[in-house]
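ugh ok so i messed up the first submission bc i forgot one of the chains. this is the corrected input, ALL of the components this time, i swear. 1205 residues overall. if the numbers dont match what u have on ur side tell me asap before i send this to the collaborators (the ones from the other lab, u know who)
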Amino acid sequence: MTLTFIMVTLFIAGILSWVCENRWRGSAKWCALLVLTLLATVFCIFVVTANHNFESLTVLSRVSWIDTFNIEYSIGLDQLSIVLIALTWLLAIICVLVSWQEIKHKAGFYYFNLLATIAGIIGVFVAVDMFLFFFFWEVMLLPMTAIIAIWGHENRHFAALKFFIFTQVSSLLMLVAIIATGYFHLLQTGELSFYYLDWLSLNLPLSLSQYLMIGFFIAFAVKLPSVPVHSWLPDAHTQAPTAGSVLLAGVLLKTGAYGLIRFVIFLFPEASAQFAPIAATLAVVSIVYGAKMAFAQHDFKRLVAYSSISHMGFVMLALFAFNDIAFQGAIVTMIAHGLSSAALFSLAGMIYQRIHSRSLADMGGFWQSAPRMGGFALVFAGAAFGLPGLANFIGEFFSLIGAFQTLPIFAVIAAFGLIGSAIYGMVLFQTSFQGLAKQEIIDLAPRELMICSTLFLMLLVIGLYPSLLLKFSFGA
Amino acid sequence: MTAIPLFHVLVLSSLLFTIGFTGVVARKNTLFILMSLEVMLNAVGVAFIGAGSAWQQADGQVMFILILTLAAAEVAVGLALLIRMQKKYRSLDIDLLNKMKG
Amino acid sequence: MLLASLPFYPLISFILLIVFAKRLSWHVASFISVGAMAIAALVSMRLVLELSAMPDSVMTANLWHWFNLVTKQGSSDVNMSFYLDGLSAVMICVVTGIGFLIHLFAAAYMKDDANFTRFMAYMNLFIVAMLVLVLADNLVLLYLGWEGVGLCSFLLIGFWYHEKANVLAARKAFIVTRIGDTSMAIGLLLLFNSFGQLNIEALSSLLQQIGSSGTGFSTEQLNDIYWIALLLLGGAVGKSAQLPLQTWLPDAMAGPTPVSALIHAATMVTAGVYLIARMHHLFMFSPEVMTYVAWLGAITLLLAGFAALAQTDIKRVLAYSTMSQIGYMMLALGAGAWSAGVFHLMTHAFFKALLFLTAGAVILALHHQQDLFKMGGLLKKLPVESALFVVGLVCLMALPGTSGFFSKEAIIAQLWSSNTAGPALWWCAIIGAFITSIYSCRLFFLAFLGNKRYRTGLVVEKANLMRSALVVLAMLSLFGGLISLDLSQVFQSARASISFENEPSWLHSVAIATPFFGILFAWYYFKNYRLTKGQDDYVLSASTHSFAVFCRNGLGFDSLYKRLFILPYTWLAKLNRNDIVDKTLMSSAWYIGLWHDVMTMIQNGSLRWYLAAFGLSILVLVGVTIL
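and heres the new structure output, hopefully the right one now
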């Protein structure tokens, strides 16, 4: 009930801030911030006080929705989704904070879209009915496209369209897979069902399940993204406004990983085990290719975008290694990448506000005039190249050490990504903050300092005390 | 009097039709297009007459009368449009009317 | 408790300095940073005393649980815990002791720099990372320190980041060592996969247990050990600037001189040596890799010696000599002379810190002039510095009685009869010692004897802080050899590999005499460097012989790597900047766009075209029906 309340409230609050903005200029952001903080608190209280331990998927409410097709409105939580929702809350608040001064044009509608996207994302994480999942998957997509298309940078329409078409085409495959699986459920048990827990008990022959698995896999691989279907990401991330990039990199990519875990690996274990060599190859190619492409970029945000591809490759590799250590590694990498890429994109936004350029050629020597920003940039770049002591290291280390047990050669090649990441990390940090000062910029304002230090502390705490995350089983 | 074979009538009619069609496609002036249209209609009329006489039926002549009426009506509408066009565009060039271009 | 607190003194100082940054005056900042180091040094002394009183000479301290790795065989805990034994005790003494003296020097040396607090903060952070590295009880924590050291050295090399060259040097240092680190990381993966253990102590006892058990290691395990040792060696080679990853060290001299002393002489580069010594249980079971270590060390020490002979920059001479001395340590480790290697690590830290810092003082006096050919005749102008420099050089040459003598002789003595080394490597070491004394003499002649070749006046500062640090280091360099280093408990299992039976009696006399031959050779060969010529503005220039230039440029490794790795990588990156995969996918968009254009062209709004198309289609239809 509480979850439904949260999602509905997010929508209403979105409309509310739209209305408010029309009446009192500048009120939308306060409205959004207030609602997000309140709802995040509500969610935390709900999870802490709930008398479940959420070790396995706990269905919280189940109401019939479309009777003809036996589609239900059913939502539930487990530790995996709780952790991801917690990440969503944190990044949502950060999104509002980074848009604080950036968004002036049509601010009300902007916050409506932001809150709607967040509602969609939370819906994706809690949906237990597959049709509902698909519904939220689309809900999350549309306002995001609007955010890119309306408030993005110079090439925003193209990027938004590309983002939309890539995800839409891939989710079409998923829809087909969903309907097909529902239909096979009908054939096998005599009852049409889109209920996830029903599907878990479904026993399909491998020849059939591998095609269904592929359908889901492609949808999530596009979202993750993995080479060769990654190319929407650099454009979308680069063109989106700061908050859009933060949300995209921080959470939207995680929905792909979440889908891989829940609807590919848990649902079709045998088929995905058989598919593992291909998936691992794609993952390793993503890691190395992403790192190499990141090095070649001249655009701050584009560089970070390609580095995301490289990092998500670790997630995919770890997931298809099929062992506990790697699985934990994948989840820590997801969280860590959510934090570190959000941090780097926020930083890019802060620099953009000051110099109105994303090009690395226009940057240089900022450390002189903005030492705090430089320090944070170094730490976040360090997180990106897996500096031990920060969260990303734990994730990558676990992923690699787990993957090495089952896929040694892939793990070794993936480890070369560490060199690649050091190279692009150095390029990113050194060209923007070292060298001769091209211009002076203002150091971090208190609001920006708060964003950076929150993200930094999270990265540090997870890096030094990962038991916070690792103590959960995530239903493995 | 020897009867003209149907085949010859049909050859004449299709020749006339082709000439009319070519006129419609090739001329730019709307007036000439209308005239070519008349030629095409009359070509069909010739075919009907020929067919009617070949089968010794009145239907062919009935159809010809119908076509004649139709042609008259069509010319009336067509010329009216022509006058409107002349007023609006100061030209009878049919290619000016390409508002439907995709 | 004391052990657990050790890295936190410099850490607290680092945090204070970074947070308050420029709000701190020079006095406060230097008091905090140097004070923290003083406390750390005292604490390490205390720890060593406590340790020697302990029966098993091992202390541990557990800070907190980091994570554990659960596998099917069982679970392995990886904790934030420290482990102190004889080996790490030597290391913490060197790190904090030498570190303290260098901090003291740096506080005076960098006094006028605008970013003084930032500099001291980095130095402190570096000490933290190094302490974590040497105290780590598991390889993951060691890796944390390892990377931390890399990051700090990156920051310090690029400290004067306004200059492009420094930025590039910092990047090079970081990336080259990162290549080594990656090799080490893969080694860790393999290690965990084969033995399910990352804790150093548990691993060594596991290895011993398997090794001494009836069945011994299986072939598969031996193969794994071979690869693990080789991969860890890759890490050590990167950090310790040995072949083939040595190229970063000379460029790293771009940093301020105290940095060179601290990082690239006394501590960081010894991390690789420490790693191998720490993992000696593993290396022992792989004699092939031990031989590789020895040969790598030998080749590096010779090549670096040749390169040092041709340098014109005073700091680069010292950098190459560091490389070559670490070659000795590697040689010792490879030969199984573990204690001798670690002993040389310690004495080298003393005299190399002394040499670098004195060089720093000289450079400062000459208005940041580092070119040897623009110095000369400094003996009279800077007598104290010259004397200190001589002390350092004498130790470097290993003249009898100095600390360098004791440690280097200890290494050379064990080479001949080692199973994994042998006479060939012994000769390498002797030739290395010969070259060492030649380049040391050349350096001394160029800088301190001969004509005055600098234009500007000297800045002679009476900085007592700097002097006192230098004097203490000089004392240590001279008498540090008398410190009896008892590491037998650490390396007790490892002593069996060397037998002193079949070595000829002339070995020692040759080893002792070699440096003197070197001095004699240099005395005549570099005559014009040391003699004073009549005219006042005498110009001396470095040899332009192609071989000399080749040696000066680091024996061509830089350009080789540039051709082999850097250019292809950047070329590939540039070539594919627009992402070929993206272009392929977008070609489908282009295809759809093409159809769009075709369709638009058809829809041209011209009635006559429509009609023509209509007629044509009917014709075609009729034709098709008829046919």
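quick check: Strands of chain A lie at 58-66, 71-77. that seems consistent at least. DSSP finds 19 helices and two strands in chain A.
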